[in-house]
From TrEMBL:
Residues 61-92 form the PKD domain. Residues 1-23 form the signal peptide. It comes from Prolixibacter bellariivorans. Keywords: Signal. PROSITE patterns: PKD (PS50093), PROKAR_LIPOPROTEIN (PS51257). InterPro entries: Ig-like_fold, PKD_dom, PKD_dom_sf. This is PKD domain-containing protein. Pfam families: PKD_4. It comes from the Bacteria.
Amino acid sequence: MKTIKSFFIFFFSLALLSFYSCSKEGEYALQDPPPLDFKVYFNGLDVSFVNNVSSATDVSWDFGDSSSSMAGDSVVHQYNSIGNYLITMSATVDGQSYDYHKVLRVDKASSIKLDDNSFDDWNSVTYPDFQLGGKDNVLGGKVDYDANNVYIYVEFNAVEGAGLDSHIFGIYMDTDNSIATGFTMKGMGVDYGIEGNFYTGDIWPSMVDMVNGDSGWPFVEYNPANPIIPGTIQEENGVIKMEFGIPRESYNINSDAFQFYMSIMNSDWSDIGNLVTPDFDDKIVVKMDKQ
């Protein structure tokens, strides 16, 4: 099987999978999901696949890249390039054979570590389009990504008398890279929003509800298991530096590009400023084409 590089083919494959997502020896309804599941762990192009069903036996894997299949409950496969791949897990459960299909996005590795109490790892992020500027009291930042998260670093002037935990952050994300879906804002189709303070845990993730939401602000409450991953935050000479991660799985970030707008506000919602591109555009486009 070949790498699914076309966005059209990607969604066409998903449509097919909705009808043919499993097979079994014997008769059963097509809409019944197969009793299979697996976990995936990324390290750049090295991807680990782990069977997540204890009763499954004779497990084998097709990695969707024309390589030979591999057997085992836990296997590691190295891809030659980034892209979307159709993974097939085959196994036996209670004497019946099943196939479970899932489209997987493989991307580059990142050197960003959110738990190292340091910003030094951001020195390795040198892509010109990943260097960000700022408006008003936002001084600038950077962005990076891997298969697990989108990482954002930002610096901004601290408001006099305000502590590190007194700011509100707003991130509005076009996760499918399509203005045709979501709420039109800053020239993008916003699918999800995150507001609140990332370090106090007072966060309000939301998703667009174009059917039931009002036309002015059609967002409804959304409760992903991991809404945000906080990293290091420091204040030095009146400048606050912070980093955090946006879990891609939580917001369905599986396209070949990710767009977002990020603003920073005081606790009374008055504006501090926002991140911008090197060309001073409010809409930041992260092209996920880096090898």
